[in-house]
Amino acid sequence: MLWAAAISYGPLALVLAVPAGGLLVRLFIIQHDCGHGSFLPSCTANDQLGRALSLLTLTPYDNWKRAHALHHASTGDLSRWGTGDVLTLTVREYLARSRLSRLRYRLYRNSLVLIVLGSPLNFLVLQRFPSGMGLRRRKRSCERQPSSTGRSRLAALPIKNGKN
């Protein structure tokens, strides 16, 4: 794709950009699953693959993983609004705002604004400057409980031993 752009084959570069973009989205989906500890059976392997993919997706893996876990921990709870969330006001909070503030909120929550401006801002700018979040490291979820693969192996032990 870069070769096509370098030798002035712009239309070819544009055509190749579509599958390249799809590939990057798929790599990010795998990185996301690694962040949840669900792509590979091993927690360590998930983290290693997630970090390797982060070099291609340009998303700092450990910072993203922590922020994403915080996002899942508080999703739907407006009293714990914060990391990774889109500002959501209650009807009472919305009506208490000035007319101009309500207009700004409606523009901010507009799907076109969130997708066309918000996504590039998040992925191209904000994730380039990760914050430490100042939170102590907690034990990884895959260290606290066996994975589904581990549970199925544990469940199969009595059956296997019973047949011997």
In short:
The protein has 9 helices and no strands.
Topology of helices and strands:
Layout: H1 2-6, H2 10-35, H3 43-57, H4 61-74, H5 91-96, H6 99-108, H7 111-125, H8 141-144, H9 148-163
Describe the structure.
The longest helix has 26 residues, at 10-35. The protein is flat. The protein has helices at 2-6, 10-35, 43-57, 61-74, 91-96, 99-108, 111-125, 141-144, 148-163. It is mainly α and 164 residues long. The protein is built from nine helices and no strands. The model is unreliable at 144-157 and 159-164 (pLDDT under 50). Helix 2 (10-35) runs antiparallel to helix 3 (43-57). It is 68% helix and 0% strand. The N and C termini lie far apart (58 Å).
Number of strands: 0
Low-confidence stretches: 144-157, 159-164
Q: How would you characterize the largest beta sheet?
A: none
Percent range for β-strand residues: under 5%
Overall radius of gyration: 22 Å
Instruction: Indicate the multimeric state.
Output: single chain
Q: Roughly what percent helix?
A: 55-70%
**Average pLDDT score:** 78
Supply the helix-strand structural class: mainly alpha
**General shape:** flat
What letter string, H or E per element, gives the SSE order?
Answer: HHHHHHHHH
Amino-to-carboxy terminus distance? 58 Å
Helix segment tally: 9
Keywords, separated by commas or semicolons:
164 residues, mainly alpha
